[in-house]
Amino acid sequence: MFQFNPYSPAVDADPFPFYKRLRDDYPAFWSTEANMWVLSRHADILTALNDWETYSSASGNLMDEFPGRAGATLGTTDPPRHDRLRALIQKAVTKRALDHIVEPTRAVTNAHLDAIAGEESFDFVTDVSSKITVDLMVYLFNLPKDGQDIMRDKAVLMVQSDPTTRSKGPEHMAAYKWMTEYAANLIAERKKAPGEDLMSQFITAEIDGEKLDDREVQMTVTTLIMAGIESLSGFLTMFALNLADHPEARRQLVANPELIPDAMEESLRFNTSAQRFKRCLKKDVELHGETLKAGDFVCLAYGAGNRDERRFEDPDIYNIARKPRGHLGFGGGVHACLGTAIARLATKIIFEEFLKRVPEYSRVQEQLPWMPSTTFRSPTRLDLRIG
Amino acid sequence: MSKVTYVEHDGTATEIDLQDGWTLMQGATMNGIDGIEGECGGSCSCATCHCYVEEDKLDLLPPMGEIEDEMLECVVSERRPNSRLSCQIKMSPALDGIVVELPEAQS
């Protein structure tokens, strides 16, 4: 009997064989462990993303949702309110508003690369991706310098789940509580003296007399710190891993850094860091011979859709010339990742610098430790040997 | 399914079949039309799916909302009387054969 248990460490480590069975044999699959349906084909996921009236986000979008979060963030609000709130925030994070992050990102990248210069090997997670993303968040939100390590630890814990109880454990809930309090304190401080940073923009932004209320700002900041730190650093790590496993691709990028954006898109397809999000059905849906009932939760397995041979030729081959239009690495539809432009720009700059300074590297570990998470996927440590 | 043709700034025209109910922005981004970006995913909040709609189809479109009107004030290329955001135009049989021109730049 086929099972798909997104809490299983086997799925954390290698979800792709499970995804293939899902796509081929169970395209609308009820997972008893997750207590929800799983959609795995690209076309079905895309249809769901484009039909928010049927596939609602208002009951939560994380596979394991936190109490009190649904309805208070962009990702857990449906249109039309969603669209009004997103308009408040979007203008601060569109491509043309981000020139100011280029030089700070380059500078923090080089500072952390200086620290590993001369080493034979290093852990990409601890030494590079975590440090750079934390610095970037500190810059974007103008966060205090103190307590950054705790903030990073809590962000990483927040996205995890306990594989045995199949839910958030006490340490994950405590991390969430810590982050919401951290956000609340920051917001209180920032309200007294708003600046130019993203958080100040959220607090002061207003359209048609509508502002984000205090809890929305708090939950939005909590979510953005979590996503910013964990999903960006997770993706940077996956990109570095792909380039370790595909040295020919890496050498092409070293020789011609203009190819970095294409390679990044292929990594977003091949190993998206956001593997799964969920929706809740507002009405019954007939799909592949199954009846999905109103009120049922549905997992949209982006990582499976990105390997769907019905959409991408030879999907298990990493091909930086592919230009995978329509990949689900940032989700899609009205809830497509808010940080898309930041993530693309930061990743490009970080890898321009990284590959300049570390053009040749290889993996030390054969087996990687994977984060226990139903939503995100990345290794918790990636040891790389230089040269 | 209805047909839409995107004419890029360099004159390249691409015709695609688009499912009714899907937006012209979705049709463009799913089919590799570079002249549409759609950064915000279709929530009418980024003004990077700007297009110029052929005049005789303008009246068939849903009326422009207040937010779309505000967003069009932020487009990078010239705003014209036939400017719309393609994420706000859903395909329907009435629009079959619609032609939209894409501006020089979106961001």
TrEMBL record, chain A:
<comment type="similarity">
    <text>Belongs to the cytochrome P450 family.</text>
</comment>
<dbReference type="InterPro" id="IPR002397">
    <property type="entry name" value="Cyt_P450_B"/>
</dbReference>
<dbReference type="Pfam" id="PF00067">
    <property type="entry name" value="p450"/>
</dbReference>
<dbReference type="GO" id="GO:0020037">
    <property type="term" value="F:heme binding"/>
</dbReference>
<dbReference type="GO" id="GO:0008395">
    <property type="term" value="F:steroid hydroxylase activity"/>
</dbReference>
<keyword id="KW-0560">Oxidoreductase</keyword>
<keyword id="KW-0408">Iron</keyword>
<comment type="function">
    <text>Cytochromes P450 are a group of heme-thiolate monooxygenases. They oxidize a variety of structurally unrelated compounds, including steroids, fatty acids, and xenobiotics.</text>
</comment>
<dbReference type="InterPro" id="IPR001128">
    <property type="entry name" value="Cyt_P450"/>
</dbReference>
<dbReference type="GO" id="GO:0005506">
    <property type="term" value="F:iron ion binding"/>
</dbReference>
<protein>
    <submittedName>
        <fullName>Cytochrome P450</fullName>
    </submittedName>
</protein>
<keyword id="KW-0503">Monooxygenase</keyword>
<dbReference type="GO" id="GO:0006707">
    <property type="term" value="P:cholesterol catabolic process"/>
</dbReference>
<dbReference type="GO" id="GO:0036199">
    <property type="term" value="F:cholest-4-en-3-one 26-monooxygenase activity"/>
</dbReference>
<keyword id="KW-0349">Heme</keyword>
<keyword id="KW-0479">Metal-binding</keyword>
<dbReference type="InterPro" id="IPR017972">
    <property type="entry name" value="Cyt_P450_CS"/>
</dbReference>
<dbReference type="InterPro" id="IPR036396">
    <property type="entry name" value="Cyt_P450_sf"/>
</dbReference>
TrEMBL record, chain B:
<protein>
    <submittedName>
        <fullName>2Fe-2S iron-sulfur cluster binding domain-containing protein</fullName>
    </submittedName>
</protein>
<dbReference type="Pfam" id="PF00111">
    <property type="entry name" value="Fer2"/>
</dbReference>
<feature type="domain" description="2Fe-2S ferredoxin-type">
    <location>
        <begin position="2"/>
        <end position="106"/>
    </location>
</feature>
<comment type="similarity">
    <text>Belongs to the adrenodoxin/putidaredoxin family.</text>
</comment>
<dbReference type="GO" id="GO:0046872">
    <property type="term" value="F:metal ion binding"/>
</dbReference>
<dbReference type="InterPro" id="IPR001041">
    <property type="entry name" value="2Fe-2S_ferredoxin-type"/>
</dbReference>
<dbReference type="GO" id="GO:0005829">
    <property type="term" value="C:cytosol"/>
</dbReference>
<dbReference type="InterPro" id="IPR018298">
    <property type="entry name" value="Adrenodoxin_Fe-S_BS"/>
</dbReference>
<keyword id="KW-0479">Metal-binding</keyword>
<dbReference type="InterPro" id="IPR012675">
    <property type="entry name" value="Beta-grasp_dom_sf"/>
</dbReference>
<keyword id="KW-0001">2Fe-2S</keyword>
<keyword id="KW-0411">Iron-sulfur</keyword>
<dbReference type="GO" id="GO:0140647">
    <property type="term" value="P:P450-containing electron transport chain"/>
</dbReference>
<dbReference type="InterPro" id="IPR001055">
    <property type="entry name" value="Adrenodoxin-like"/>
</dbReference>
<dbReference type="GO" id="GO:0009055">
    <property type="term" value="F:electron transfer activity"/>
</dbReference>
<dbReference type="InterPro" id="IPR036010">
    <property type="entry name" value="2Fe-2S_ferredoxin-like_sf"/>
</dbReference>
<dbReference type="GO" id="GO:0051537">
    <property type="term" value="F:2 iron, 2 sulfur cluster binding"/>
</dbReference>
<keyword id="KW-0408">Iron</keyword>
